[in-house]
Amino acid sequence: MAAQQKPETSPATAVAHVDRRRELDAESARHLADVRARNALVVAITNESWGEKMTPVMRRAFAEYMRRFHLDISEVDNLGGKPYRNGRYYERKIAGMRSAGLVDWSAGEHIGPDARLDALIAQGDPWAKEESARRLRERIRWAVPDDATHAYVTRVKLKGDQNPLEGCDWITPKRMKKTKFGDKLADPVGADEPEKTVITRAWRRVGLLAAAEIPELKAEEERMDVAAEEVSAQVEEMREADETRELSMQHARQLPPKVDAGDPYQVDANAAPQPREAERVEASPKTAAVHDRAAQAAAAPDPYDDDSLLDLDDARLADEDDE
Asked: Which among 152, 155, 255, 278 would be 20 to 30 A from 266, CA to CA?
């Protein structure tokens, strides 16, 4: 039998095969890089205080969101199951806008009260007096409450604009709010880390304003907001599924199984206990004979239960005494 000949391959076909293999290798490499990046983000999320209580599926949803938009773990917080781009993200975004020539300058400063300024004022320091007065004027301009312990202002001067954009935030750590569970802190996050929180929120405020002024950035922010809502919806579905599963397990542990009236072999756990009937055993002829003899012996009178025998013994004993 003649050996089967392989079809001849033209040089163009061979080049096409090589190019296709290279494309597949490049696609596999990109996919592997995405998987590694997502896994690294999952580990980073697990190490965060807001991520350690999330389920693995929720962490993967957050990690995919961060990988998709090239976000660092320090630039995202968990706001009730929704990815929240914090002030660090907007600081980086504004720095990129400045490098691209869209922003002339950006700055941030504290305007809250400071006990160290008060100490310098007591020593007669003129700079401390002026700085304290400047901060007070800024707090008045922004209507910062008197019980605010921290306040921060950010400014961004866009290219071509006459006045800079501004954002301000303040922290009132001792304010309470009434809930059905009693009085609770109105801003527990701010009360826990006031300086970090006030800076983050102020940069976020001015970053949103800056992004709204630039069409390309505004469209990108809208895409990120839509994706964040999708992640929030996924997390909510996961929570509802977990709660439903937990309730079903508790219900199954507490209630007896339902009995189908048409199934004669299913045991009703709610039914009252019934006396057990004696088991019937088919008796062989030999076993039947044994049972008959046992019944006859049981029916025969007991010779030791006859009092007349006791009277006869007493009579014999009396005769022996007379002799």
From this structure: 278
